[in-house]
């Protein structure tokens, strides 16, 4: 053990996280907000477990939902057996069952997938994901086919006075598991395995020369990541009380990749932000428009093109500027760029919604955006929204140039000041 | 015997279609190191463009126009998207094409709806080609084989016998030297990416009529062509060819067999077979059929 002084910042950060978990449902009391928070908690665990592969191990997986989904299936069967009185596991410990199931499948599939790294690993993980999905549909006896398996989380005697019927109790269960898992996954990054995973990601050849078997490191990292994914699956099973083929599908695997990347792969806390944004997109935005996946996909592409470090990197980039007390100079271009982006977005949304209304049979072609009513069959709104989009993009270009110029001058000053 | 012959022909024509897809993927991968996740989406775009052109003009113009349009889309994607993420590395490129696949699928949802569109086989190609022992073989299957073989031969000729093909081959191994000789290597990459997309588009024109043109068609065939590339060996055209025919025949035979194995018929297990083959291949021979040894 090396000597470490008390890291005050770290203690403050972890305590603040715990407080946010405790206080969040008190601030947003509507039942909709509570379901949103529960799903965010589950997604945070799932995205962080995914980042153990992509961020820390350099393994791009297209089949991570396999582990969470199969964990959820095992959990739902365990819960049903508990309900029948076959054996007794208190409900709060059920996610552990899901986690262990995830671990077992992680060991099983990881043995095959981690034989290769890089692009080949990505393709193999996709193949494994499709294989499991096809198998789930093939054995309706165990997996319940398309409809899935439903359950009831209120079983047996209340545990410590908690029946887990009300959503608020489920929230605190998810919050507790989420906090424990975040802490555990962070602790894992500090272990020799976590460090070696980074080394294997950055330079597998050197890692081999130091005497580590890269395949073995990848395998361990994947198995542990599958454990946490299984915990997330178990929690989602308790929350939704149903597990279906969709839980192991490519849609889920893609979703966790999107969430993690949008949040920020290079940083431990990035996926937490990503999960919050992603659930907001999935749950909140899908209520407003059927084109929400298109917007999510566009957002993802913009992040890949312009901010490969995700939201987390965009936030962290500001810290040195704020420390140097120069953030005020950036405020004006930021506001301008934000306004221009909003303008372009408004034009885009108008066009996308009109295309959608025209193509779907039986949909009403009259729509109203921001209080303006119009008909998608007329030409005028197309010209108007096209003009708004073009003007927004042109303004965005100018604003980002302005921002870029100020940004680089500040960076130069900061560099010059360094000894 | 008759069953076997018809199934074998069907399997080969399906396998050739798969090879039209996997060859484009392999070419782009071996030239640019980019695994194009959106390759199957270009296949779907080809089918939808062909549907749109067929409705307006007819099938034969669609056969030419749709691949050209898809190729143009591919070039735009390379020029304004892939080239920008290139500096962030291969994972970023893969992620970009992954996001693109999302986007194309959603765009198809928006423009053409969520249901399958009507794309019948043109009347000239509808009907039996010949009879084998009482059962008839459709002309369209023969047409599929003809187009795929013609395409493969012309690619091979273009790559080995023409000037541009030689430049492409040289850019594959010695990009700096080719650039020093005055060729625009980024433009070569753009052409190759667009060409790969056009190949997928052509497969889409044919596959869309033979099977069904629907928004799920990319997701249905995408994983299979990845399996083919892994089984055949990354970046190997010959390996992709063998694996395509193997998987095409395997799928076709499996679907029509009702031998039971532990309560599940082989037909029910058909969707899993390619993936099982991939897993077996990875355990026994991790580099694939014709692949070279690498990490």
Structural class of chain B: mainly alpha
Number of domains of chain A: 2
Report Rg of chain B: 19 Å
Q: Strands of the biggest beta sheet of chain B: in what spatial order?
A: 1-2
Number of helical elements of chain A: 16
Spans of chain B of 5+ residues with little confidence (pLDDT < 50)?
none
How many distinct beta strands of chain A? 4
Question: What's the end-to-end separation of chain A, in Å?
Answer: 32 Å
The backbone outline of chain A, from C-alpha atoms, is globular
CATH class of the largest domain in chain A: Mainly Alpha
Largest interface, counted with CB-CB under 8 A?
A-B, 48 and 45 residues
CATH topology type of the largest domain in chain A:
ABC transporter involved in vitamin B12 uptake, BtuC
Q: Tell me which oligomeric state these chains represent.
A: heterodimer
Second-tier CATH architecture of the largest domain in chain A: Orthogonal Bundle
What characterizes the major β-sheet of chain B?
A: 2 strands, antiparallel
- Widest sheet, order of strands of chain A: 1-2
- The portion of residues assigned to helices of chain A is over 70%
Number of helices in the DSSP assignment of chain B: 12
Q: In terms of per-residue confidence, which ranges of chain A show pLDDT below 50 for 5 or more consecutive residues?
A: none
């Amino acid at each position: 053990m090396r000597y470490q002084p008390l890291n005050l910042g770290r203690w403050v950060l972890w305590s603040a996280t715990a407080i946010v978990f405790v206080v969040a449902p008190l601030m947003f009391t509507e039942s909709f907000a509570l379901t949103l928070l529960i799903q965010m908690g589950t997604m945070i665990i799932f995205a962080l477990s995914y980042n153990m592969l992509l961020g820390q191990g350099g393994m791009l997986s297209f089949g991570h939902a396999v582990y969470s989904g199969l964990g959820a299936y095992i959990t739902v069967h365990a819960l049903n057996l508990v309900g029948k009185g076959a054996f007794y596991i208190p409900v709060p410990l059920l996610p552990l069952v899901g986690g262990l199931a995830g671990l077992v499948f992680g060991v099983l599939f990881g043995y095959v997938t981690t034989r290769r790294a890089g692009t080949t690993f990505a393709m193999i993980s996709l193949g494994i994901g499709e294989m499991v999905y096809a198998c789930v549909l093939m054995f309706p006896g165990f997996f319940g086919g398309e409809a899935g398996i439903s359950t009831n989380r209120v079983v047996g005697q209340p545990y410590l006075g908690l029946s887990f019927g009300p959503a608020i109790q489920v929230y605190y269960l998810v919050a507790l598991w989420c906090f424990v898992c975040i802490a555990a996954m962070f602790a894992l990054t500090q272990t020799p395995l976590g460090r070696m995973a980074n080394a294997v990601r950055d330079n597998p050849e050197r890692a081999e020369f130091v005497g580590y078997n890269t395949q073995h490191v990848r395998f361990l990292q994947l198995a542990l990541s599958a454990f946490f994914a299984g915990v997330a699956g178990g929690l989602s099973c308790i929350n939704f009380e149903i597990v279906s083929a969709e839980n192991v599908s490519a849609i889920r695997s893609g979703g966790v990749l999107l969430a993690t990347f949008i949040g920020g792969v290079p940083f431990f806390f990035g996926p937490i932000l990503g999960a919050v944004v992603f659930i907001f997109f999935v749950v909140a935005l899908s209520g407003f428009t059927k084109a929400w996946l298109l917007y999510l996909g566009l957002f993802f592409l913009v992040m890949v093109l312009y901010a490969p470090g995700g939201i987390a990197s965009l936030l962290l980039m500001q810290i040195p500027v704020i420390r140097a007390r120069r953030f005020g100079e950036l405020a004006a271009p930021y506001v301008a760029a934000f306004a221009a982006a909003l303008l372009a977005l408004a034009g885009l949304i108008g066009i996308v919604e009109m295309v959608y209304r025209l193509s779907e049979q039986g949909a009403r072609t009259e729509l109203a955006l921001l209080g303006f009513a119009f008909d998608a069959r007329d030409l005028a709104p197309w010209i108007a929204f096209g003009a708004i989009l073009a003007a927004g993009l042109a303004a965005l270009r100018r604003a980002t140039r302005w921002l870029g110029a100020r940004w680089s001058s500040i960076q130069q000053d900061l560099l010059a000041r360094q000894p | 015997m008759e069953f076997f012959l018809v199934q074998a022909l069907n399997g080969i024509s399906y396998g050739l279609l798969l090879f039209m897809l996997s060859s484009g993927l392999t070419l782009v991968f071996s030239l640019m190191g980019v695994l194009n996740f959106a390759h199957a989406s270009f296949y779907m775009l080809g089918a939808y463009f062909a549907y749109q052109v067929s409705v307006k003009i007819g099938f034969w113009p669609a056969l030419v126009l749709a691949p050209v349009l898809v190729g143009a889309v591919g070039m735009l994607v390379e020029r304004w998207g892939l080239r920008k993420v290139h500096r962030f590395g291969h994972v970023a490129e893969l992620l970009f094409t992954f996001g693109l696949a999302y986007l194309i699928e959603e765009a198809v949802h928006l423009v053409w709806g969520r249901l399958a569109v009507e794309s019948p086989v043109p009347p000239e190609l509808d009907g039996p080609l010949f009879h084998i022992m009482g059962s008839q073989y459709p002309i369209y299957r023969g047409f599929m084989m003809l187009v795929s073989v013609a395409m493969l031969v012309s690619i091979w000729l273009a790559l080995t016998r023409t000037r541009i093909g030689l430049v492409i081959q040289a850019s594959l191994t010695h990009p700096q030297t080719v650039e020093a000789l005055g060729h625009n290597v980024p433009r070569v990459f753009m052409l190759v990416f667009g060409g790969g997309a056009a190949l997928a588009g052509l497969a889409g024109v044919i596959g869309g009529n033979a099977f069904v043109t629907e928004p799920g068609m990319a997701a249905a065939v995408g994983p299979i062509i990845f399996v083919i590339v892994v089984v055949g060996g990354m970046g190997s055209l010959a390996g992709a060819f063998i694996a395509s025919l193997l998987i095409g025949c395997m799928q076709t035979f499996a679907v029509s067999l009702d031998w039971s194995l532990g309560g599940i018929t082989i037909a029910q297990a058909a969707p899993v077979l390619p993936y099982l083959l991939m897993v077996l291949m990875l355990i026994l021979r991790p580099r694939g059929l014709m692949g070279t040894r690498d990490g």
